[in-house]
Structure prediction request, 328 residues.
Amino acid sequence: MECVTDGKLDEKGVMAARRADKGKKKSKFLNADEAEELFSRVDETGHDNVDTARRERARRKEKGVGVDIDPLSDADPSGSTVERAIKRTAVLFVVLTLLVVTLAQVSCGIVRRTSTASLTDEVTVANVSAAMKNGIEWGGGFTQFPEDFTIVEASENTGRLEVTVTDSTSENARDCFSSAQVQSTALAINALLNPDIDVVVYHVNVHADKDGNFQTSQLFGFLRPAGNVRNFMTFIWTKNSNEDGVWFSCSITGMDEKTTAELRDQLKSNIVTDLLVPDQSEEDNEEESGVLTPSSTQDETGTSTDTNAEDQTNDGTSNNNQTQSTEQ
Prediction:
């Protein structure tokens, strides 16, 4: 803005105009004309500079363009479908886990059955060792044997199979007897079905401390028991054939009178009664089993007499069970 007086510049007016222009504050908002001019220069990249816009188009062409997100949409990936994604992932994880477990069980069963030796076809040291390690198919599953075992004899020429196992998992005589009975039966029946085998001997050893208590493995079998190894019992299975059929006979030997009495008490004990009324259950067990009590009669030497125990311990405790199979 210039002030002219008689054809000459009014210096005072010019200075005043300049001060007025400086005193005005420039607005931070664009007016209509400035906004129209700005948007006329901006392209789809959002830049009004030609060089910057060119570089942005080249970058998008090389790396791609991001997906626009509409926060108000129900079908966008902005987080509205996260619940559905979590459900789908959880269901997929469960289905895959079940499939993996099922396939693992089926494959393990197939491998186990194919790798298990058949003692009915051939009885050798290698076959018996494989059967003791992998187990023997018995009933609806497999019967496992203790990890510590020794094959004393396995020959079809002599018709005899003899093994010795060391039980390190049973805590008392009842547990050891029950597990050993199943193991010996599975091994003996499978072997005696072989026409060349007539006798199966199954020795059972245990670890015991100086008081005779059973010792077991600890920490999932990593810590082996340190007690002395002693023989607990022996199962002797024999086979006799005649024109009427095949006879299997089992004799149990090796248990002393004390072990027999303890085993009898444990088999007759009632778990519920022992927990509720332990004193009464002990008295009932003593009366039923014939164990010496303060009111029992004694002979001149001060020892009690048990005819059943004497009969059972003449030649070791024996249990003769004979079963006749169908005529072949």
